[in-house]
Amino acid sequence: MPRLGLARRGAPIFRYEVIAVKAYTAQSDIDRETEVPKKPRLADTAYDKMLRHISLGDFRPGARLTEPFLCEALGMSRTPVREAINRLIADGLLLSC
C-alpha cells in the first residue's frame, strides 16, 4: 500500500476508495439467528457501521477514505477499523489506493 503521509506518532495514513455498494445486513442480525447469543466483536461492529454507511450512500463510490477519518467517524480505535477495512476489501467493496 502506498504511504501517503504520517498521522500522529508517526503512524502512516492509508487511503481507501469505495468501489461497490452492497445491501446492508448487520452481523448482529445474523447472530440473533443462532442459538447461542454472542457479543459482537468490535471489528464486526466497525464492519457493520462501515457497510451501513456505504449502503446508505454516506460513503459514495469513488470516495477516498482515510483510517483517521474512519476511526473518528465510527468512534473506534484503529485495530477494529483496520480489520473491517480488510474485510470490506476482501468483499470487493473497498479498494486500497
Give the gist of this structure.
This protein is mainly alpha-helical and 97 residues long.
Q: What would you note in describing this structure?
A:
It contains 4 helices and 3 strands. It has helices at residues 27-32, 42-56, 67-74, 78-90; strands spanning 15-18, 64-66, 94-96. Helix 2 packs across helix 4. It is globular. The N and C termini lie close together (7 Å). The model is unreliable at 1-6 (pLDDT under 50).
Which sheet architecture does the biggest sheet show?
Answer: 3 strands, antiparallel
Whole-number radius of gyration? 14 Å
Number of helical segments?
4
Query: How much strand content do the residues show?
Result: 5-15%
Q: Encode the helix/strand succession as letters.
A: EHHEHHE
Shape: globular
Distance between the termini: 7 Å
Average pLDDT over all residues: 79
Q: Write out the strand line-up for the largest beta sheet, numbering strands in chain order.
A: 2-1-3
Structural category is: mainly alpha
Q: Helicity range of the residues?
A: 40-55%
- Please provide the count of β strands: 3
* Low-pLDDT segments, ≥5 res: 1-6
